[in-house]
Amino acid sequence: MVNISTTMAYIDGTLKARIVMQQCISARLQVKPATNEEEAEHVEVKRGVLIYVCFLKQADISIVEKMAKTLLNVRLCPSGNGKIVSILDLPGDVLIVPQSTLGGKAKGKMMQYHSNIAKVKASIILKAS
């Protein structure tokens, strides 16, 4: 069974981020491609959750604490006794993946990303998390 949860982060009625959480048994993400001189670099997690996040233009660093508290306490993972618990109740890993495509909006046959935050600002918010 795969558990996936989608959510949107609002503060003061303003949409600040879109998020998808996915339970995983293991996950591997390439963070640096291979070159002629070096092998590709990856990060890996074992049992836990993947959190895909897209910050929107209205996002700022104040959203991080509320998002982290909410996401870490969501009951998404089955425990050994069959109960659904949060990642904090398990020995589990968390992998946060920036995913700008979550901020897309369909317009005709094209996707537009005008609502997404600037890459540099998103990086600052992610490093705070």
From TrEMBL:
UniProt keyword annotation of Metal-binding present: no
Gene3D superfamilies noted in UniProt: D-tyrosyl-tRNA(Tyr) deacylase
Catalysed transformations (reactions): glycyl-tRNA(Ala) + H2O = tRNA(Ala) + glycine + H(+); a D-aminoacyl-tRNA + H2O = a tRNA + a D-alpha-amino acid + H(+)
Record's subcellular location: Cytoplasm
Main location: cytoplasm
Entry keyword annotation includes Signal: no
GO cellular component: cytoplasm
Source organism, top-level taxon: Eukaryota
Key words of the record: Cytoplasm, Hydrolase
UniProt-listed Enzyme Commission number(s): 3.1.1.96
Subunit text: Homodimer.
Protein name from the UniProt record: D-aminoacyl-tRNA deacylase
Source organism of the structure: Holothuria leucospilota
